[in-house]
TrEMBL record:
Residues 1-64 form the HMA domain. Keywords: Metal-binding. Transmembrane segments: none annotated. Signal peptide: none annotated. It comes from the Bacteria. This is Heavy-metal-associated domain-containing protein. The keyword Iron does not apply.
């Protein structure tokens, strides 16, 4: 499944690493693409969207919406 979130609070490569690592704690094979300019995080994962959203939230960032994916 691929899902794309709109995320607030990301501004640097440390943020990219933090979000990527948080997601990979739940799915170590997840493919994660972070676009700092738009605040979008695209994830290819077998985990439910809610789990991925929680991982981003727990890393200290705010998911403001689902752009595309099963919850859209």
């Amino acid at each position: 499944m691929t899902i794309e979130f709109q995320v607030e609070g990301m501004s640097c490569q440390h943020c990219v690493a933090a979000v990527t690592n948080a997601i990979r704690e739940h799915d170590d094979t997840a493919q994660v693409q972070v676009d700092l300019a738009t605040g979008r995080v695209a994830i290819e994962s077998t985990q439910p969207a809610g789990t991925l959203k929680s991982a981003i939230d727990e890393a200290g960032y705010t998911v403001t919406g689902v752009i595309s994916g099963p919850d859209r």
